[in-house]
Task: structure prediction
Amino acid sequence: MLDFVNDYAEGAHDKILDRLRETNLESTPGYGNDSFCESARQKIRKACGCEGADVYFLVGGTQSNQVVIDSVLRGYEGVIAAETGHIAVHEAGAIESTGHKVLGLPHEEGRLQPDVVRRYIKDFYADANHDHMMFPGMVYISHPTEYGTLYTKQGLEGLSAVCREYGIPLYLDGARLGYGLACADTDVSLEDIAEYCDVFYIGGTKVGALCGEAVVFTKENTPRQFLTLMKQHGALLAKGRLLGLQFDVLFTDGLYLEIGEHALKMAALLKKAFAEKGYRFYIESPTNQIFIVLDNRQMEELGKKVNFSFWERLDDEHTVARFVTSWATQESAVRGLISIL
Amino acid sequence: MLDFVNDYAEGAHDKILDRLRETNLESTPGYGNDSFCESARQKIRKACGCEGADVYFLVGGTQSNQVVIDSVLRGYEGVIAAETGHIAVHEAGAIESTGHKVLGLPHEEGRLQPDVVRRYIKDFYADANHDHMMFPGMVYISHPTEYGTLYTKQGLEGLSAVCREYGIPLYLDGARLGYGLACADTDVSLEDIAEYCDVFYIGGTKVGALCGEAVVFTKENTPRQFLTLMKQHGALLAKGRLLGLQFDVLFTDGLYLEIGEHALKMAALLKKAFAEKGYRFYIESPTNQIFIVLDNRQMEELGKKVNFSFWERLDDEHTVARFVTSWATQESAVRGLISIL
Amino acid sequence: MLDFVNDYAEGAHDKILDRLRETNLESTPGYGNDSFCESARQKIRKACGCEGADVYFLVGGTQSNQVVIDSVLRGYEGVIAAETGHIAVHEAGAIESTGHKVLGLPHEEGRLQPDVVRRYIKDFYADANHDHMMFPGMVYISHPTEYGTLYTKQGLEGLSAVCREYGIPLYLDGARLGYGLACADTDVSLEDIAEYCDVFYIGGTKVGALCGEAVVFTKENTPRQFLTLMKQHGALLAKGRLLGLQFDVLFTDGLYLEIGEHALKMAALLKKAFAEKGYRFYIESPTNQIFIVLDNRQMEELGKKVNFSFWERLDDEHTVARFVTSWATQESAVRGLISIL
Amino acid sequence: MLDFVNDYAEGAHDKILDRLRETNLESTPGYGNDSFCESARQKIRKACGCEGADVYFLVGGTQSNQVVIDSVLRGYEGVIAAETGHIAVHEAGAIESTGHKVLGLPHEEGRLQPDVVRRYIKDFYADANHDHMMFPGMVYISHPTEYGTLYTKQGLEGLSAVCREYGIPLYLDGARLGYGLACADTDVSLEDIAEYCDVFYIGGTKVGALCGEAVVFTKENTPRQFLTLMKQHGALLAKGRLLGLQFDVLFTDGLYLEIGEHALKMAALLKKAFAEKGYRFYIESPTNQIFIVLDNRQMEELGKKVNFSFWERLDDEHTVARFVTSWATQESAVRGLISIL
Result:
């Protein structure tokens, strides 16, 4: 069975396993105070072009979103997100469970538009009753988005400008950041993200790590006692070294980008084949997620030989299917899928 | 520098790293629906003598306590714990952050006494104002306790009887369970724990895993939609296989107990040496934590060559120091420490 | 200055003040255990045609919504509401602050449609990822709605059928219930509400009381320890008698309906005048809230002599204004406004 | 039946009822923006000798404690209180339900001692693991305490000094403040409280009002958007005038103190009689709560003719009973009780 279901189906990049083995018996302090974490922090700061960045390692994406958002927001504030944003839909109410509303706004292929955000905030403050409403206290975006699309530099700049106008932070969820940074057509670098965003996380789980995300505060704006808040949310790993070591490897010799490039190369092969065979693309994603409209017969036939994701039902006859490549996708598997198509 | 600070200072047992490597490129579903998790569940059920047990894998101890306690309790209920219990002191308010009070009771060397718990609950219901108070909705114990002490079978039975009398669950935090089960003097087996407790967790992080705890519901009492509740608390690992695989290894060929036995053997060597050299034990712990009273000069001298924990200040002249052995402690290190003593 | 801003601008119905005076020095137990509360409960049960109803008195509407919804929902559940519902917009995140998501759905003049709700829940359960989403655990409606519109009996029956199909409760916010029940054109009685809804509240604050809402559980479905949960939410009034007494008066000799009828009579006079003068109605509300489209000049002129509410901006030239009558509206004030029109 | 159960058993002081009647048909804005609230704020500021004080009116004591404490504390902070403090025992976990731990400390007849508080905070910061614990973020005291005792000016000054040393606010719960201020032996005035405390509330419910407490921030330290936070907690009364009007009356012509003096005069009569008849005082309370040790026979006999509170069981033979006087206590009732004694 060929597997294109997602980008977290396998273990970890070989170099990570190698390094785990090499360092296994070194004794280190717990909770992120070890030399692996420190080394990873330095490399991330350098990669971001932001020497003053404050970096924390958490285990997963929902956890990172929950801890960051709850720590940054005040009690009367909610977080603006695209209606399709991960925090708005697929985190089982993790944000609400900490007391904050997700303020869902319309989007363009998963992206928030600066004008839409500005209009919302402006209308909010113009509303005579806004003291009886949850305040917009942060803007959340994902890059790549849930549809695999990317912001442009101009788009990020625009959102950043709105946020600064109203004094609220811009937060970027980079669960699949490696697949965005490695895109040939993007004009957005890690340095740009560090410049425009007040806080963001660099995804590890979906980009070659066993687990782990690196949360980066870029503006000397780390919430007070963030470590204690991590602990309180059950998000402070005892063996923090496990996370630090992985990011240390990912940010050594450009491995993080290399992983992204591999997945995009595999995705390009696959997209070309879909296009040539006349399949209809649901959305033009430039990254490692491919959304294809299949009719019922195609769904059934393909499903016998390939694992992929059901994305959404389009109509009685058609379904949107998602095919994902990753650091672990082998060219032979792509060729296999293409021959089936 | 010799290291006896804690039992989570190194990576993981070799067999775990081996297995990670072997299985690295196998493609599996996410969120605990993989074959490694399923295999581990079966082995844990068998080890517990509880075929109907429901097993979930979480990343860490505070996280497990938070998710279990918040999921099991009703909104008006708190959790009874020893005043020294981990949830009462060292989890940064993780329980309170989900809305529940930790009802701290006096203890005997870290252990809750059945009579003390019964008296508390009885007095609670006898109080005319108890509708204005947080209800005792669960009893939390740790085994080994924070002082390294163990419950007897009779002790567990007694607490279980109180809990059943009042219809509330007994929950056991087994962060260091392996070091308790392997104790030569204990009469408490994993089967006993599964019998007397309604829910407990088997610690991995401190017993040879990179991370991970196995939460076990033993009485067909899993809270509805527990998976969704894990997700909501940021505690559902995407690559659940990482946790399942580790517990699968730990519960193959008795590795979990073997790890415990090794640490206790190392601890026994060390305790013998402390005793022979005339050091004063702060508490008689039968497991892998050793609490020694040091005077200021000893603290200073030892601190130059050995890493250990400051536990608490006893008086101006004396301090309680904690020395911990683990799955990773090498006999040469113990010999080294003994020679220093 | 004439006042049509809202229905909570004055004190209380004379009969309530009279009764407060008469009973002032009677000594009663606190927290709702007094004879006034008990008498009010009996009268409400009778008016609802529901002898088994369980009735609690709370101070305000947002408080009632928060306590009821948080007490009824499980941790992984959210509440379905119209996107314009009070809990979705104007309660400052009171529902989210207790950990639950408000699941906003499209509406028809403030009313939820049974088909829309059924489709949403059906799609939810059909979604392969719904374990990672907040579950629909309750349906919230307001009657009259925020637009002053009313459900029909058939509409209520339809929503109730959806709720029962999926085993979730239907909750009705009756902040202005009196003005709905008294409507000549409605086919919905208090008995119908008690039949179709699992829980609802009868508004006092906006219908002649100083403060107070009566929460009614109709299906032997009161959450366990609801009194303790009220206390925990800061919603248990020490002098519960203040609330019980007011509802006792409101439900004596049909006063509650009488108050509603008076306000509707005043509203009818006003609507007739608006219509005759050619004003444009933004919505055809059958109750005590009147929504009129004014142009900028009208806004300015009227604003000099009459207090009314800015509702929303329609376009650069036009605004929706809201005029509200109440138990306290005097016919002379209505005549005054008409003469100004 | 004579009634000495509590100080919230009757309605309200006559002057409040009179004023409610007089002003009943005046139309006012909602949510505390009315002239009654504004007038009361001015009078309270003046009585506190604190022109810059920010005053909000809430409905009840638990609600005030919850909203103030949750609004002032950061997420990682708890609140220090006497183990017998109302928030620690009798508010059904209202503080924990908002995510904060109540850090209970030993007390002297209900009073926190500055040295005990300082030692606790000092030890907290000296603990190497304090990043894994809930931080002390506020000190809560009640005055009079739950035992009817009072702080001295020196005691308040001492607590205030500790709080300022560590940069955390001192909060005073004045549910029965009137009975403390009116005490002949106290050296603590309302001005002193405003000076030493960062925030406090002046109790209305137990001191002659139907309901209501006035929260006072004294140091230009009102939490941002406090009104929105009140709304979110269900604590913003629509007819805020009801609260403002009552405090306006209570702070006109010294009524608040007059009410306190009356209750203390009644209490003095009663204490004298208890003493003369040889009853044993459990505690020497200088305010309106009298704690008497009764043997079982006395309990039974007295209980036939007088309502009083069961406070706590002392031993098999003896019980602590509480007798409370109030603004509403009539001298004839006191004489009646004395004749029974």
Observations:
- Residues 123 and 130 of chain B are 9 Å apart (CA to CA).
